[in-house]
Amino acid sequence: MAHFTNDELWGILDSCGDGIYVCDATLKGIWVNEIFESITGVTRDVWYRYTVYEMLERNMVSDSVVKRVYDQKKAVTILQTYKTSDRVALLIGKPILADGQIAKIVVTAKDVTDIKLMSDELERLKKENQRVYNSLLNMKKEQSRETDELIYASQAMSETIAFCERISRVDSTVLLLGETGVGKDIIARTIHRMSPRSSQPFVAINCSTLPRELLESELFGYAGGAFTGADKKGRLGLIQQAHRGTIFLDEIGDMPLDLQAKLLRVLQDKTVRPVGGTESTKVDVRFVAATNKDLFKLVREGLFREDLYYRLNVLTVLIPPLRQRKEDIQVLANYYLNKFNVLYGCRKYFHFDTVKVFKEYSWPGNVRELQNTIERLVVTHLEDAIRPIDLPPHFQDLKTPSAEAKVRDSVPVQTPSISHVERFGLLLKDIVGQVEREVIRSALESHATATEAALALGISQPTMVRKMKKYNLQVSKEQ
């Protein structure tokens, strides 16, 4: 067995790959190697000068494995971060006993900073991946509900949605007002989704599409044998099916007067009595109603109950028509174009001037008309480019004038007769060239770049460059 002098032994320990610290019974350091100094960022003269208690009091270290060993009288392992070195160490402290008492404590320190950083990064990535997964999952759920499409960019709709978020927290009845096709059903679902009732049913019914008798039984349900053909066990109405959730009464202005009285009792008493029934049932339902009619005018004409009107008109949301939020037209058009491209396996795109026409159109049918128009164009149009001329006839008067039209309207170019040709000795290609040059020149004057001018004329950018060289034309600098 080899024997080492003290100097040799300390030299071996000093060159060890792990940090080593030794203290006496007073918990003051008596030997520290260079690796321990490096890991802790504290020089050995400091370890020799102070006890562990003094270093803790001076906040020189945040924790001490030595103190834990001394208190517990057994080996202790901890993970400690040293601010002085910005390193993380795995510390193992072991007592050396003499006559049952601690004589010395030996601590070995292994630098695990890189391992800790890797562990933290893995944990961060795990959380990030989970967040992304949850986001994609929620997005998938949202995309699976077509009625939940809420696409907007305008300040008007931003303010409307912000108001809906505020009122969604309470159970007061909401009345949605707006023209046909503005998306009242989507707003109703949005209010429900943002409310504390979001995990409960959302039930919708259109009061204008059902005859009076069917509407009554659909809303309030019916008792067994209430009428010919009725289920013997009876049936729950939609109001009861929406218990603890939200019921959306669309086109409430078309509800018959006698059913209005019955609905008023539900709103007042929070109870439902089915058709042919004798007992009422308590319900907990949030009511959202919608109409495109002037309910107050209907009240004055005796076609809508005044007391029901005031019961419904607690919180009112006025949804602006599409013509008043033109910023939404392009984002909605692009959204539905992408949607129907995916749905029907197409690659259609809007010509530069087509979106201009969309923005100038009044859209009396609002978002629903926009959606239907784009679906029809994607399905029926043969070419990929959707140009203003491809739009339905009622758009034609609104088309943004093309470069050809500008030339035609502003420059009286006449097709030469045979006599003109003979007189001036012009060939047909020369005449066509003159017209073509004027058309391209006008397009370049009307657009900021040659690419935009090419799009307006329906030609490729390389073709436009060749034509510009041929006729010695440039993009107008006065833009």
What do these coordinates show?
The protein is an alpha/beta fold and 479 residues long. It folds into 5 domains: 6-111, PAS domain (Beta-Lactamase, 2-Layer Sandwich); 116-144; 156-319, P-loop containing nucleotide triphosphate hydrolases (Rossmann fold); 323-398, Helicase, Ruva Protein, domain 3 (Orthogonal Bundle); 403-471, no CATH class. Helix content is 47%, strand content 16%. The protein has 21 helices and 16 strands. A 5-stranded antiparallel β-sheet has the order 2-1-5-4-3. Strand 3 (76-82) and strand 4 (87-98) form a beta hairpin. Helix 7 crosses helix 8 and helix 19 (428-446) crosses helix 20. The chain is flat and about 110 Å long. 25% of the residues are buried. Residues 139-148 and 399-427 have low confidence and may be disordered.
What is shown here, in short?
The protein has 479 residues and is α/β, with parallel strands linked by helices. It folds into five domains: 6-111, Beta-Lactamase (2-Layer Sandwich); 116-144; 156-319, Rossmann fold (3-Layer(aba) Sandwich), CATH 3.40.50; 323-398, Helicase, Ruva Protein, domain 3 (Orthogonal Bundle); 403-471, no CATH class.
Question: Any chance you could write out the topology, listing elements then pairs?
Answer:
Blueprint: H1 6-14, E1 19-24, E2 29-32, H2 34-40, H3 44-49, H4 52-57, H5 65-72, E3 76-82, E4 87-98, E5 101-111, H6 113-144, H7 155-167, E6 174-177, H8 184-194, E7 202-206, H9 212-220, E8 221-222, E9 235-236, H10 238-241, E10 246-250, H11 257-269, E11 271-272, E12 281-282, E13 286-291, H12 295-300, H13 306-312, E14 315-318, H14 327-344, E15 349-350, H15 352-360, H16 366-380, E16 385-386, H17 403-410, H18 418-424, H19 428-446, H20 450-457, H21 461-471
Parallel strand pairs: 6-13, 6-14, 7-10, 10-13, 15-16
Antiparallel strand pairs: 1-2, 1-5, 3-4, 4-5, 8-9, 11-12
